[in-house]
């Protein structure tokens, strides 16, 4: 009988590890998504605000309808934040319209990903430079487009 207990203990330990991993993943997903949409129902008064002196990097133009909010730089990388009209249900459409506008400027679409109503992403490139777009809710009736430009 002692030989029978060992497989059961191993099986129980394995089940416990799997349950903890799945539970941890579920908690992570919950808080990641909650952080993504935390301001979606808030007033835009303090969120849709332009940082004084913000300018887009040389050679880059925001698509029509987008308002520059701020630009962060680190080395050669610029992260450009722009707001646009639209709610959580519009994120994928905003991403697709943004990609179409950038294609007209010489960008190529390399791939997309989305979690509808939470965020929509696109990998783009121009020449041999890879960039990305992320669209998330900003506030009530507005989305933010984050461009990571190298």
Describe what you observe in this structure.
This protein has a 6-stranded antiparallel sheet, covered by helices on one side. The protein has a domain at 67-149: Mog1/PsbP, alpha/beta/alpha sandwich (Protein Transport Mog1p, Chain A, 3-Layer(aba) Sandwich), CATH 3.40.1000. It is built from 2 helices and 6 strands, in the order αββαββββ. With 150 residues, it is of the alpha+beta class. The longest helix has 35 residues, at 2-36. Helices cover 32% and strands 35% of the residues. A hairpin with a 2-residue loop joins strand 1 (67-74) and strand 2 (77-85). The chain has helices spanning 2-36, 91-103; strands at residues 67-74, 77-85, 108-115, 119-126, 129-139, 142-149.
Q: How big a fraction of the residues is strand?
A: 25-35%
Q: What is the mean predicted local confidence, pLDDT? A: 88
Strands of the largest sheet, in order across it? 1-2-6-5-4-3
Q: What is the CATH top level name of the domain at 67-149?
A: Alpha Beta
- Helical content class: 25-40%
Shape-level CATH architecture of the domain at 67-149: 3-Layer(aba) Sandwich
CATH superfamily of the domain at 67-149: Mog1/PsbP, alpha/beta/alpha sandwich
| CATH-derived topology of the domain at 67-149 | Protein Transport Mog1p, Chain A
State the end-to-end distance.
65 Å
Strand elements, count: 6
Low-confidence sequence ranges: none
Order of helices and strands: HEEHEEEE
Helix and strand content put the structural class at alpha+beta
C-alpha Rg, in Å? 21 Å
Largest sheet descriptor:
6 strands, antiparallel
* Cα shape: elongated
Number of helices: 2
């Amino acid at each position: 009988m002692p030989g029978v207990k060992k497989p059961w203990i191993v099986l129980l330990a394995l089940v416990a590890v799997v349950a903890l991993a799945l539970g941890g993943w579920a908690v992570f997903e919950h808080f990641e998504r909650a952080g993504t949409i935390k301001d979606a129902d808030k007033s835009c008064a303090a969120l849709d605000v332009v940082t004084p002196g913000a300018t887009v990097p040389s050679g880059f133009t925001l698509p029509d309808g987008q308002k520059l909010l701020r630009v962060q730089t680190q080395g050669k990388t610029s992260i450009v934040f722009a707001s646009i009209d639209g709610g959580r249900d519009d994120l994928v459409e905003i991403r697709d319209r943004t990609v179409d506008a950038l294609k007209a400027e010489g960008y190529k679409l390399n791939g997309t990903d989305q979690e509808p109503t939470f965020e929509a992403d696109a990998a783009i490139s121009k020449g041999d430079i890879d960039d990305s777009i992320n669209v998330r809710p900003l506030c009530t009736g507005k989305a933010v487009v984050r461009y990571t430009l190298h």
